[in-house]
Amino acid sequence: MQLWLIPILPLLGFLINGLFGKRLPKAVINAVAVGSVFLAFLWVLKTLSGLGAFSGGLEETYSEHYFTWIKSGSLDIGVDFAVDRLTSIMLMIVTGIGTLIHIYATGYMAEESGYYRFFAYLNLFMFFMLTLVLGGNFLLLFVGWEGVGLCSYLLIGFYFLEKFATDAGNKAFIVNRIGDFGLSLAVFLIAINFNTLDFGKVFAQVKTMPVETSPGLLTAIALLLFVGACGKSAQIPLYVWLPDAMAGPTPVSALIHAATMVTAGVYMVTRSSSIYLHSAGALDVVAVVGLATAFFAATVGLTQFDIKKVYAYSTVSQLGYMFLGLGVGAFSAGIYHVMTHAFFKALLFLGAGSVIHGCHHEQDMRKMGGLRKYMPVTMAVLACATLAIAGVPFLSGAASKDMILEAAYEHAPWMYWAGVVTACMTAFYCSRAFFMTFFGEYRGAAADAGHGHGHDKKKDDHGHAKKDDHGHNAGHGHDAHGHDDHGHGHHGGLPHESPWVMLAPLVVLAALSLGGHYIFNVPHILEPLFPIHEGESEAWLEIVASAAGIGGIALAYVFYVLAPGLPDGIVSTFSAPYRWIYNKYFVDELYDAVFVEPTIDGSRNLMWRVADVRIIDGIANGTATVAQGLGGILRRLQSGYIRNYAAWVVAGAIVVILWVGFGGAR
Amino acid sequence: MSLLDIVLFLPLIGFLAILILPKESSRMTALILSLGIFVLSLGLLSPYMGDASPTGWQFVSNVSWITSPAIRYHVGLDGLTLWLVLLSTMLTPIAVLISWNYIDHRVKEYFAFLLLLEFGVLGVFVALDMFLFYVFWELSLVPMYFLIGIWGHDRRIYAAVKFFLFTMAGSVLMLAAMIYLYNAAGTFDYVAIQNMVQTGALKFDGQVGMLLFLAFFIAFAIKVPLFPLHTWLQDAHVEAPTAGSVMLASVMLKMGTYGLVRFCLTLFPNAAREAAPVIGGLAIVGIIYGALCALVQPNMKKLVAYSSVSHLGFVVLGVFSFTQQGLDGAVYQMLNHGVSTGALFILVGYLYERRHSLEISAYGGVATPAPNLAIVFLITTFASIGLPVLNNFVGEYLVLQGAAKANFSWVVFAALGVILGACYMLWLYQRTFYGRASESLAHHMPDLTTREWAAIAPLLILMFWMGCYAQTFLPAISAQNTAILNQMNQNRVEQAATPALPAGAEVRNAR
After folding, report:
1. What is the ipTM metric for this complex?
2. Where does residue A11 rank: exposed (0-12), middle (13-18), buried (19+ CB within 10 A)?
3. Are A113 and A483 in contact (CB under 8 A)?
4. Under DSSP, is residue B73 helix (H, G, I), strand (E, B) or coil?
5. pLDDT for A320-349, tens place per residue?
6. Residues A504 and A490 sit within 8 Å (Cβ to Cβ)
7. Are B202 and B184 in contact (CB under 8 A)?
8. How far apart are CA A261 and CA A253, in angstroms?
């Protein structure tokens, strides 16, 4: 079936644009970048239909072996690609959404310098992401896993002249490395105990093992894998990199930090479901961490003013939902939400990108407003996405979210209720963003647009990391655009609608957000892997969840359209908790104070300057000084430059002679 | 005369040729000769091209050198040393290329010493007579001493002497142990002594065994360098000229790790087992300690030097896991470190040639005026971090997998080094290449020249090759390591006073 073609096509795109892009005209770069991903999408369709995935086939895993990558003793790791129904869903999402976002990006990035570099990275990301989902063993999954992390790093730091961007890139990579620490330990444990890393062979052995009632090997593996998932999929306590990752261009936020890469953790846990199903304890941890993340990220989302930050916290929160689903055993519901979330969250980000693009790179919602006059299409599609994420009945978001919540209710009712509250908050803050952006009057004063409009807001939000150079922010504002001159062409201009090359993908995504779940019924597709639970689902569960969503929208309407003064009143009444939440519970500051600063201080002042230079090197040099003193006697016998050498050879020879004479000869 | 003899002695001839020929031709002579030696050395691959890698000695020469005491010129190649030899012959022309403009005084002596250094390190890897090994071991010190002492930076004399004394202190112990072995076995021949150890004709038990082991071990551990014997390395690296740093890190440090596998494991397996918990602990301390020190270095070369302490901790950990994966990974990691840390030193040298500073704070924004340099540095950075698809990942994975098998708590700590590795390398990269370039930096930061590309490109290719298709390199290493582990374990079986087993498959099962 030539599965290898699927990732290789974007890799070729990367190589062409990466090596020659500087000299290529934009049209060629576009053709290569979009074309390679679109071809991969077509090849996915052809492969899947060939395997019968669209006609009820592909009940068994189909795999291809290419070559042996690493062979050491009994450990034999091959480059193997495998497709089953789970993979086929991920392939469709990655290449399908990927194609749309690539098309969009050709419009969004049109004015940026480093155009070819951007698309080269984006293609490289597609290669690694497809390797991640196609890989037939844990090490190949890890290759994709680290590779997408690399691309994430490169694209977050795309505007590498700006320190906040490269800081965010470093943070993403390093926090992910902490997660990978857990993942790699899990891989070691698997290889030691199963003597293979091949998915099929490992899971076949796992299935013959007893379910663990008390923590044992499988629980350890499951929890360590989940540490990896917490890094990549931004769960507590490792979620801190994702909000900062919004420093990257918006198409990147949509593709990597919403629709695909961040769901890799969900995919990996689902892939390893047989391990998790053997450990109730590990599943509980997944559910609780997911729910806690969903809840707390949603509270932060309530207070943010940067439109991308709102959606970033929303992503963290929705990923928490997915893990809640997995944790309560509803694996197919979790993957269902991966898909619907890919539709509506990609749309939210791309829509936000359209807004930002139209407002000359403004991201602060307080400086938007009234955009419905200027950007009607963007407003319409964002309305679809907002309704979908809010959980309005019959739309895609509701379908998957309700399935997760129902499973949560069966597992533990309190989880359901916490999930419903979260759903209400989600509906509220997404609608808030929508109303603040499109309703009311335009607040971005034309005079204000001439300078410093760029990423000022971003800088504020990064204040914690930049405390020390706040003073220099003000003067820095006007050249914050060094990387993209885009805004400068429109000094003081009014917002404008985006070109159709950007809007067309939005319309497709809007349609999918509304009804995509009718085309791709994930739980049904995954039935061979995860049997559908035919329980008596109680109708009121869905009704309450929908009501929570609609209530959230209504509340936002009241707060931000009917009575715009209301939020400020509430904020001033509850200013202390508000500040706490607005500043994201000061988690970044806490991590800095507890982990980062002590490590650096300790390394500099204790490890290096004291332990290494004073003690260890001090002892060595002290010995040398003593030897030099002794050598001073011998020095008289020697003359010239190499006295130290001579002294030591003589001393050494004496030691040797003594040893051989008295010790060795025995 | 075998191909190995030719490859070994050509550098010595080159050394003499450069000294004789006029100094205007030194560079070109050195380049042509070292390239020729590299091409010739590729012929050493021929026995390893088949499906099954041979485990015995290849290209053996064994003639008498000194009759009393019996010292022989005995050289040979096996799967352990094959790639180390090729690494050395490949890096020498690269070292010549990167010194092309860098060296402007005493040019003739400089390039002559580079070839003498090649002669020394090749000899260390192929010598099978212990005395011969010792001669080459000491011989390799001399050119490096002068490379640092003459062409180094401000504190070069201090660094050169320190380098020399540290290594000498260890090798004196090693020499003493060799003489003890000679008295016990009546020969300096490694193969013969190893055979006696394996058949039980020669036994080093208890304290004597441990002392002999330690004498070798300390000599090698200083060279590696293993924590806490590493403080000579930072000074030597910072003061050395670029090519000196490259040869030191990529090849000379491997003399230590090679010695650990060749001598410590096969001659004193029981002592090695006994000491393994402590050595593994030191290796892990070194991994974390080196990384933490690298984190806070204001000087680029010092940062890379400390990162070497961390990386070589992985090698030692793999060796003393006594597992197939651990050993395979350790040997693979020796090559990886040679490639990627060598490349890092080369790139730091490129930066230095442009801006004449090793302080990280003197840089910032280099990516804008020199994008190609930035990309190459980025790839090397990620190779060093252990990103899959690049070389270090394979080695680190195998080492940690093997160490996990030996003692799972080891890897819990050792894997922290992988996190810290990302921290110090990415921070170095950010502070050097990202941000806005100052006016003065932008004017003195031309992009890579053709000569510079030629020197770094082979290493870049190897990073991808070794990362994507390890099976080019691993089979020879793996087969040899299986043999080494068998040698270790055969000894153990006989220690347990069971009847002597024939060598081969049963022994493996007896584990």
Report:
1. 0.91
2. buried
3. yes
4. strand
5. 999 999 999 999 999 999 999 999 999 999
6. no
7. yes
8. 10
Average pLDDT over chain B, rounded to an integer: 90
Q: Is A98 helix (H, G, I), strand (E, B) or coil?
A: helix
The answer to whether B122 and B89 are in contact (CB under 8 A) is yes
* CB contact B207 to A (< 8 Å): no
pLDDT score of B508? 41
HEC assignment per residue over A392-403: CCCCHHHHHHHH
- Decide if B366 is inside a domain: yes
Give the pLDDT of residue A5: 93
* Helical ranges in A574-616 per DSSP H: 575-582, 587-591, 597-601
Q: Count of domains in chain B?
A: 1
Q: Rounded to two decimals, what is the model's pTM?
A: 0.90
Which tokens go with A7? Answer: 């990732």
Task: Report yes or no on B362 lying in a domain.
Answer: yes
Cβ–Cβ under 8 Å, residues B386 and A173: no
CA distance B185 to B169: 25
State both tokens at A103.
């098309």
- CA nearest neighbour of B193 among B246, B132, B128, B254: B128
Q: Prior bond to B228 cis, omega within 30?
A: yes
- Identify any residues that bridge with A76 across adjacent strands, giving them in sequence order: A71
Minimal CA separation from A163 to chain B, in Å? 6
| DSSP state for residue A499 in the 8-state scheme | P
In sequence order, what are the beta bridge partners of A77? A70
As a residue count, chain B comes to 511
Distance CA A269, CA A263 (A): 10
Q: Chain B closest CA to A326's CA: distance in Å? A: 27
* CA B113 to chain centroid: 19
Q: Which residue of B299, B325, B398 is the best one to mutate when testing the A interface, meaning the one whose CB has the most A CBs within 10 A?
A: B325
Given the structure tokens 């930035």, which residue do they identify? B374
> What DSSP state is assigned to residue B46?
G
What are the C-alpha distances in Å from B400 to residues A223, B411, B414?
19, 6, 8
CA A525 centroid distance within chain: 26
Tell me whether the omega of the peptide bond preceding residue B241 falls within 30 degrees of 0, making it cis: no
Tell whether omega for the bond before A237 is within 30 degrees of 0, i.e. cis.
yes
Task: For residue A228, list its beta bridge partners.
Answer: none
Interface with B, mutate which of A19, A20, A68, A70 (most B CBs under 10 A): A70
Nearest by CB to A72, which of B164, B325, B415? B325
A664/B180 CB distance under 8 A: yes
Report the distance separating Cα A560 and Cα A417, nearest Å.
26
The whole-angstrom separation of Cα B231 and Cα A512 is 62
Instruction: State the smallest CA–CA distance between residue A285 and chain B in angstroms.
Output: 21
Cross-chain residue pair A624–B165, CB shorter than 8 Å: yes
- Alpha carbon separation from A368 to A303, A306, A358 (Å, rounded): 16, 11, 10
Q: Is A137 helix (H, G, I), strand (E, B) or coil?
A: strand
Chain B nearest-CA distance from A166, in A, is 7
pLDDT digits (tens, 9 = 90+) for A171-192: 999 999 999 999 999 999 999 9
Cis, bond preceding A215 (omega within 30 deg of 0): no
- Would residue B68 count as lying in a domain? no
What are A43's two structure tokens? Answer: 């090849």
Question: What pLDDT digit, counting tens, does each position of B301-318 carry?
Answer: 999 999 999 999 999 999
Give the residue-averaged pLDDT of B424-428.
94
Rounded CA separation A83/A45 (Å): 13
pLDDT in tens, A116-167: 999 999 999 999 999 999 999 999 999 999 999 999 999 999 999 998 999 9
Question: What range defines the domain where residue B360 resides?
Answer: 272-472
Facing residues of A222 across strands? none
Cis peptide before B225 (omega within 30 of 0): yes
Number of Cβ atoms within 10 Å of the Cβ of B260: 24
Minimum CA–CA partner of A596 in chain B: B423
